[in-house]
Each structure stands twice: as C-alpha cells, then as structure tokens.
Write a structure and sequence with these properties.
- The chain is of the alpha+beta class.
- The chain has one domain: Glutaredoxin (3-Layer(aba) Sandwich).
- Strands 1, 2, 3, 4, 5, 6, 7 and 8 form an eight-stranded mixed β-sheet that branches.
- The longest helix is centred in the C-terminal third of the chain and has 24 residues.
- It is elongated.
- The N and C termini lie far apart (about 50 Å).
C-alpha cells in the first residue's frame, strides 16, 4: 500500500506518525520529536478494559483485511489475558474499512450494531479470526447473529436503519487524519485528561505477531515506572 499524508481534521491534534506502506509489513516507531501526538477518540468508540487503565491501545481495523485476521489470531487473546483483564491496558477499536474491500464498511456497521447487545467483541472475533464460519462473500447478518449470540431481529433492524454508518465513516476520517492507510495499525499511548484523548507514544503496523505489541506496551509501562520513581525522588 502506498504511503499518503492527508490534512488533519479538527478532531485530531496532528498526530506525529508516519504510517502506511506495507500491508502485512511491520514497523514500530515513536512519533517524531517536537510534534503533537494527541488523538481524540470518539466517545462511543468500541472499547474493552477498565476506563481507568493507565495505557490505551488503539487498533485500526478492516474486517476484510487478511493481515488483521492473522494479527488477531496471533495476539489478541494473549493481549487481553495479559494486559486488558488485569486493568493495565484499555483496548479501543477504530474502523478503517479500506476502499478495496467493499464489504468492510458493512461489516464494521454490523459489529457496532452487535455492540448494542454487548456483542461487539464477539462480532469482532467472528468477523476476523473466525471468518470461515460466516463465509467470504457478502455479510450474512443471520450467521453473525447466530455466531455471536445476538438477537437477529434487533441486529437486522439496527443495520437496516444505518444507525452506525456515520460513526464508521467518522472513524475512517480519524484514521486519515493520522495518515493511516494500512491495516492493521496499532497506536499505544497514555490517557490525556477526561475527554477521551490519548497521547500517542508508539505505533506498530502490520501482522507482526505478539512480541512487538508486548514490547510497545512494556515500553510504556517502563515509562510509567520511571515517572513514578522521579515523583518519589522529587518528594
């Protein structure tokens, strides 16, 4: 995938990240020095983990991206077990349905509709790592409802009403604002205030497996430990 840079919308404070170029490739970098790295997340962004977690991990996901499926299969469960469940990391999803995957936007809408029944992350899993249960063709809402344990009528009504279409498209604009045009891409940072902003410190791009993700999280944990140590010394 080619690298591109786009204008930053008002919702984003010019995140200093150089992303793109290389579906399935791997990069892990810090934002360039001297640039703002604040990212404003939507209030209704799908998330799991404690809102009080000291670290935020953001996934830019396209549900038809095979590299997203590979990465989820390789790392998601372990990240949840090791970091999300103990309250260390809050995991947030941002939709980035790529133009070359015409069904990806519909999948993202369906996952958000599943979220109305507390089923977003079950749908996330089905749409990625267990895609074979749904088939590779057009979205099958009945199969998704059955696989994720959802009320099919409620899911279908939400989807038909297009309730989450604008939220999905807003996420895509947010991703464009950080010049992200490759999936999967992961951003790692610290909460910044109470308004849903995060201060991005690192990113990892591509189907890289577990270790680069762990390395990014542990780097932020070490930064927090060093900060706490300096505060104790100052006192």
């Amino acid at each position: 995938m080619r690298t591109r840079r786009t204008a930053v919308p008002a919702a984003v404070a010019a995140v200093g990240l150089l992303l793109g170029s290389g579906a399935g490739g791997a990069r892990g970098e810090e934002p360039p020095a001297g640039q703002s790295n604040l990212l404003q997340l939507a209030a209704d962004a799908p998330a799991m983990g404690s809102p009080a977690a000291p670290i935020v991990m953001v996934e830019l996901v396209d549900f038809r991206c095979p590299f997203c499926a590979d990465q989820a299969a390789a790392a998601l469960d372990e990240v949840v077990r090791r970091y999300v469940e103990p309250g260390i990391v809050r995991y947030v999803a941002i939709d980035l349905p790529l133009p070359r995957h015409p069904e990806a936007e519909r999948d993202a809408m369906a996952a958000r509709c599943a979220g109305e029944q507390d089923g977003y992350w079950r749908a996330h899993r089905l749409l990625l790592t267990e895609r074979r249960q749904l088939g590779a063709g057009p979205l099958d809402l009945d199969a998704l409802a059955a696989g994720a344990g959802l009320d099919p009528a409620r899911l279908a009504a939400c989807f038909a009403a297009g309730r989450h279409l604008e939220a999905v498209r807003a996420d895509a604009r947010l991703a464009a604002g950080v010049a992200a045009d490759a999936t999967p891409t992961f951003l790692f940072g610290f909460p910044d205030g109470d308004a849903g902003a995060i201060r991005v410190e690192r990113h990892v791009e591509g189907a890289v497996g577990l270790e680069p993700v762990v390395a990014a999280i542990e780097a932020l944990r070490e930064s927090l430990r060093q900060r706490a140590l300096r505060q104790r010394v100052d006192q």
